[in-house]
Amino acid sequence: MPAKKPNKPAIEIRDYDHADAVLREACVDAARLSRVEGELNAELTAVRERYEAVITELRARLEAAKASLERFAASRMADFAAARTRDLVHGRIGWRLTPPAVKPINRKWTWASVLDVIEGAGRKLAHWVRVKREVDKEAILADYAASRVGDTDLAAVGLRIAQDEQFVLDLNLDSVR
To answer: What is the pTM of this model?
Structure first.
């Protein structure tokens, strides 16, 4: 029994010979689609290659300008004490605080060592540790396959095993070449 109702067919297929004729047309269309997509990808690749050198150079120049302007601003930090930015004719330079982030103090501290210390502190810092709880679907499927649980057991906890049947269409493209 099909899981979903198929889209309304454009034509009604009368028999297997007619179904094979429709498959032939689908093969022709699939082969043409593949060829057209190949042409499109070749043209897109050619366009990317044509502009790649210019884009790479412009990006490098922008990064170099940013680095130079950052060094310049860093050498004049006193100018940014009152106002964090400075408007110039062609833009604005300055400093902006990033959002606060939690990080280890130094390289000696890893996230694993921080977690160990927090867990060692007991309930006092327990709210700093995140525990992800989720249903282990693979374990449920394994238990169901091994007949350790049945449909009634699953229904008692609000679950069911679902398996859909999907239509398969395998085109033999060699038949139209």
So the answer is: 0.59
